[in-house]
Amino acid sequence: MYGGEEVSAVVLDVGTSFVKAGWAGEDNPKALFTSCIGVGPNNQKEKTDAGEWTSGSVVVSDKTYYAGTNSLAVRRDAVEIAHPLKAGLISRWDEYEQLLNYTFRGALLINPSEHQVLLSEPTFNTKAIREKTTELLFEKYRVPALFLSKAAVLASFASGRSTSVVVDSGGAGTSVVSVFDGYALLKTLQRSQWGGDRITSELVTYAAKKNITLHPHYEISRKGQTISYKNQPNTTASYREYALHVLADDIKESTLKISDMPYVEEALANIAPVSYELPDGKMLDLGGDRYKLTEPLFNGKFLADGEFPVQQLVYRSIHLCDTDIRKDLYGGIVLTGGTSLIGGFAERLHKELSELSPYKPKVVPVAMPIERRVAPWIGGSILASLGSFQQMWMSKQEFDEYGKSIVERKCP
Asked: What is the pTM assigned to this prediction?
């Protein structure tokens, strides 16, 4: 049991696309920024490992790291974009460490050794990653206490439920897991690669097929009404891909929708197009295709063998549970993640499940749409501020005494 002084706990939700960080007991995270990290050469004459973040950058030995949405919006020569997490799991530990470093010292402006940390984790996280994350936070950042909690459980808490089915559709894909009495039932976990990043990539491909070249903002030069394209040969391919992804994400969020019924091209052929003005002033018009690009989320005809649409993931997850709790699970289907914010997601899921389910399903988007994107963080904020939770912390002293084995005991 953690027995330190009363200090506000920090709640972290580090996802494939975004980091959400802030204080337990608050309504919203203090900081929300991209999970990507820029890695470039150290252009300073001296080498330092001071680790002090200045304007979104830090010099460590022979590298300069850049973090934060605003910092990465600035194009720099020879800067590569790294993704610390892949498909929801930590895959690049050096960059992940710098992401945490920026979160504590650059975004929250705190000394992590003075604050307990509640860290959300994907339901499908591995034992090895859990243990290495715990070791990093205790030994590198010297946090006094730590707790790892499944993101699905936290999202369920954010909706005011301890029993639910959590549909998390974010950048890395879509995952569904049933939560009963505050515990994620791991045997019910269902996953799909279809999520925000996949749809964004399909949108870029769609534009190319329409002979429309997407130019990131940094490539555009405006002088009055004259627009020209800059030649910047020292821009890395990974940075250009990142900048294009940011642009395509905005197009996706501004124009795409989900049809309330299975997509039929003829039925949507004459729908009025929606226009999006690109950074160079050209227009991208999307008619029925703005529904077609999202249809694989709910239509198995667009999926490869072995893949399932969202409603099937929910159905399969629930029916892996005992029959006596299935009705309760159908009565609380919680939506989280940025992809679930696409217009029509909740309505289509409800319609499809109504045709599959022997019970009347109730789809529950978490609070207001903007809060749906940060639902696990909100649940963590609620949990870490409860008086009854304080005995659940895994302390630094316990970790020093019992080693990595304490992780599974304290954070099952």
From this structure: 0.92
